[in-house]
């Protein structure tokens, strides 16, 4: 933008406005009044920078105007204007004022000025109009020096847009180029996955190191620009980095955001009221399988090609797809008094169904959670009778009618494997699982620790039962893994014989005194040990207390 040329135009513009003001008393047509208004607008406008993306904030129903001047002295002056709405649809237009040949110098007679003002009036025209929320580019070419006015208006609400003007069309583009066919193809649909593919941007082939693809997934609608997507997510009450695709940094995450980094892909999952919004940047790969979607749900997919050096982006034509319905889980029959061990793969099989037909009015279901997190849902003849997350050993005593049909649905609530033992029986007075104490925690006494021994305690019951204690030496960096991976349904048969410390029987009719202690000797100083206690009932099925890690003293 050559500002010096604008000052050369200024006397002529002032001259035209002055003449128009003198002619207001005379009868005028509506087109003449419109022309006066357009010329007057030039003097209430801002200069639009050349070669730079400008962010413009619009207030509802209040137009905003910018102008620029094409350089004089060039045979043909090419230029382009790109406008990106970042929220609601807007209206915008381009008006051009071309100076007529043989313009008079300032100071000529009034009659000459009036004559030239009428000449100028024929040189103002509207060359472009648009209304909508798509990214639009106007490309023009002028053989005369001209002043251009851009007018923007939002009639729905306050919003903002970006505008990019360039008069240098030979030195490359600010925005990455889209392919001739910018559509996103859905090439695979599963119950929890959708596979997408799109044609490469020409910019990737030229500037591979500074270009990357970013994908936005949501359950609401497609977005026509990256700034529109950012605005929509912010309006849901969430703060986002300045550029959605470029600022995916862990320290910028909000509490409701989850970041996942795997296989050189960086994704952020935003928890919003309208569902999840996922952002994934995958470098220059033009295929991607979106994982961990919900079955039977419609998702919208947008791909943006982003220039990492300029923060500029271009949007492919968005698409949508509906994931397949969750297949009906295989139903397993429950038999009286028979324990079934169910293992759920959190990534592949999240549901498992069991069915039981009652031969008695009273039915007892027993669940022993072995690993992971599982939610149980029990229905009788199609009506829900129980639903909760399992913890440890859980009993459900239900009363109904003969031949009632009970359905038990188990659902894993985490990605890792989960497992549970299930028992259905009408005979609660002959349980396969032992009677449990109030707590399955093992307590250690810090003051009784020595370099060679540790004292632990645990609660018992009013029923005489067998308790077996096991110990295992572990390293400090193994503690978390050992505690997380422990199978609470496994018995001593899975342990090495050398880990067994002792077995003992005890009970107390007074639950306040139903506690026992044991001092384990022969340990090494400054060493971590994992202690386990197994409780055996009448049937011989064990229940494992929560593992306890204790470190012996270094010096005594």
Low-confidence stretches: 1-32, 103-122, 239-264
Proportion of β residues? 35-45%
Second CATH tier, the architecture of the largest domain? Sandwich
User: How many separate domains?
Assistant: 4
State the share of residues found in helices, binned by percent: 10-25%
CATH fold node name of the largest domain: Immunoglobulin-like
Number of strands: 36
Q: By helix and strand content, what is the structural category?
A: mainly beta
Rg is: 38 Å
Shape: elongated
What's the main sheet like? 7 strands, antiparallel
CATH-defined superfamily of the largest domain: Immunoglobulins
Put simply, the count of helices is 6
GO biological process, one term: nervous system development
InterPro entries: FN3_dom, FN3_sf, Ig-like_fold, NDNF, NDNF_C, NDNF_Fn(III)_1, NDNF_N
Subcellular location: Secreted
Organism: Prunella fulvescens
Structural write-up:
The structure is a single chain. By secondary structure, the chain is mainly beta. The protein is built from 6 helices and 36 strands. α1 crosses α3. The relative contact order is 0.09. It holds the Pfam family NDNF_N. One of its GO terms (molecular function) is heparin binding.
SSE blueprint and pairings:
Elements: H1 3-22, H2 30-41, E1 46-47, E2 52-58, E3 64-69, E4 77-85, E5 90-98, H3 110-121, E6 124-132, E7 136-142, E8 146-153, E9 159-166, E10 184-189, E11 194-198, H4 202-206, E12 211-218, H5 226-235, E13 257-262, E14 265-272, E15 275-281, E16 287-290, E17 298-307, E18 313-315, E19 319-322, E20 331-333, E21 340-344, E22 351-357, E23 362-371, E24 374-380, E25 383-389, E26 393-399, E27 405-412, E28 418-425, E29 443-444, E30 454-459, E31 465-474, H6 479-485, E32 500-506, E33 515-520, E34 528-536, E35 542-544, E36 548-551
Parallel strand pairs: 1-3, 20-22
Antiparallel strand pairs: 2-9, 3-8, 4-7, 4-9, 5-6, 5-8, 10-11, 11-16, 12-15, 12-17, 13-14, 14-15, 17-18, 17-19, 21-28, 22-27, 23-26, 23-28, 24-25, 24-27, 29-30, 30-33, 31-32, 31-34, 34-35, 34-36
């Amino acid at each position: 933008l050559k500002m010096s040329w604008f000052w050369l135009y200024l006397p002529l513009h002032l001259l035209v406005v002055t003449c128009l003001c003198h002619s207001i008393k005379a009868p005028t047509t509506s087109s003449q009044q419109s022309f006066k208004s357009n010329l007057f607008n030039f003097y209430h406008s801002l200069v639009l920078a050349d070669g730079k993306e400008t962010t413009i904030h619009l207030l509802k129903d209040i137009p905003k105007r910018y102008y620029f001047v094409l350089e004089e002295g060039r045979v043909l002056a090419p230029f382009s204007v790109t406008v990106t709405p970042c929220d609601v649809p807007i209206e915008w237009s381009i008006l051009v004022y071309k100076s007529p040949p043989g313009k008079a110098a300032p100071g000529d007679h009034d009659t000459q000025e009036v004559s030239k003002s009428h000449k100028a009036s024929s040189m103002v025209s509207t060359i472009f109009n648009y209304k909508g929320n798509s990214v639009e580019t106007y490309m023009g070419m002028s053989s005369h020096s001209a002043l251009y006015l851009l007018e923007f208006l939002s009639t729905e609400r306050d919003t903002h847009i970006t505008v990019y003007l360039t008069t240098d069309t030979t030195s490359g583009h600010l925005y990455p180029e889209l392919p001739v066919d910018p559509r996103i193809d859905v090439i695979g649909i599963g119950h929890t996955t959708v596979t997408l593919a799109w044609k490469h941007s020409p910019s990737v082939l030229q500037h591979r190191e500074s270009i990357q693809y970013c994908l936005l997934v949501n359950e609401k609608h497609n977005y026509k620009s990256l700034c529109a997507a950012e605005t929509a997510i912010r309006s849901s009450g969430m703060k986002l980095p300045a550029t959605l695709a470029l600022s995916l940094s862990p320290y910028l995450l909000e509490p409701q955001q989850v970041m996942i980094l795997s296989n050189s892909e960086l994704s952020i999952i935003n928890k919003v009221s309208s569902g999840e919004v996922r952002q994934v940047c995958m470098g220059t790969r033009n295929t991607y399988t979106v994982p961990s979607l919900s079955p039977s749900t419609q998702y919208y997919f947008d791909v943006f090609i982003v220039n990492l050096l300029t923060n500029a982006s271009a949007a492919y034509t968005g698409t949508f797809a509906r994931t397949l319905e969750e297949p009906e889980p295989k139903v397993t029959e429950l038999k009286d008094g028979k324990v079934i061990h169910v293992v759920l793969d959190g990534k592949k099989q999240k549901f498992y169904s069991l069915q039981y037909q009652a031969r008695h009015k009273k039915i007892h279901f027993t669940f022993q959670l072995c690993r992971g997190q599982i939610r149980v849902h029990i229905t009788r003849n199609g009506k829900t009778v129980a639903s909760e997350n399992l913890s440890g050993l859980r009993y459900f005593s239900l009363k109904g009618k003969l031949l009632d049909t009970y359905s038990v649905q188990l659902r894993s609530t985490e990605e890792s494997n989960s497992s549970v033992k299930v028992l259905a029986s009408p005979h609660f007075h002959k349980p396969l699982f032992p009677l449990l104490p109030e707590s399955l925690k093992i307590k250690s006494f810090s003051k009784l620790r020595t370099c060679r021994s540790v004292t632990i305690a645990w609660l018992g019951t009013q029923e005489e039962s067998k308790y077996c204690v096991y110990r295992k030496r572990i390293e400090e960096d193994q503690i978390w893994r050992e505690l997380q991976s422990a199978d609470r349904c496994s018995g001593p048969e899975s342990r090495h014989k050398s880990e067994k410390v002792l077995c003992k029987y005890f009970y107390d009719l007074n639950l306040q005194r139903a506690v026992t202690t044991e001092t384990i000797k022969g340990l090494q100083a400054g060493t971590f040990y994992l202690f386990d206690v197994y409780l055996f009932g009448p049937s011989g099925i064990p229940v494992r207390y929560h593992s306890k890690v204790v470190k012996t003293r270094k010096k005594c």
